[in-house]
Amino acid sequence: MTQEISEFQLTTPESVASDPDAVEFTRMWWSRGEPVMSIKPAFNDPRQYGHMLALAAKHMAHGYAVRHGQDERKAYNAILEGFSDILKRNDVQTLVEKE
């Protein structure tokens, strides 16, 4: 794998690194013009995954406010619009890469 540009590198929070019970359940990339992800259905109740996605949307909106100076509420609404755009589509497919 090639080295990621430092601007886009993420680090594992210390609170997670020091937690032996921490579970990673999603990794996402934008690669070759499309989204790519590695997922693990780690929760027994799928609603918990929905809760995590909702929290991620809230935190990402805050990130847009801090990093790009956007209004946090507008950024959050734009993220929700993006969710809605994809949920309305009938052509989204899950493709599994061979290991």
Describe the structure in your own words:
With 99 residues, this protein is of the alpha+beta class. Helices cover 44% and strands 12% of the residues. A hairpin with a 2-residue loop joins strand 1 and strand 2 (34-39). Helix 2 packs across helix 3. The longest helix has 23 residues, at 46-68. The two termini are 14 Å apart.
Walk across the major sheet and give the strand order: 1-2
SSE string: HEEHH
Number of strands: 2
% residues in beta strands: 5-15%
From the alpha carbons, calculate the radius of gyration and give it in angstroms. Answer: 16 Å
User: Mean pLDDT score, rounded?
Assistant: 92
* Overall geometric form: globular
Classify the secondary structure makeup into a structural class: alpha+beta
The major sheet is characterized as: 2 strands, antiparallel
How many H/I helices? 3
Record keyword descriptors for this entry.
3 helices; 12% strand; alpha+beta; 99 residues; 2 strands; globular; single chain; two-stranded antiparallel sheet; 44% helix
How are the SSEs ordered, and which strands pair?
Layout (H helix, E strand, L loop, with lengths): L13 H4 L8 E6 L2 E6 L6 H23 L3 H17 L11
Antiparallel strand pairs: 1-2
Helix pairs in contact: 2-3
Task: Report a brief summary of the structure.
With 99 residues, the protein is an alpha+beta fold. The protein has helices spanning 14-17, 46-68, 72-88, and strands at 26-31, 34-39.
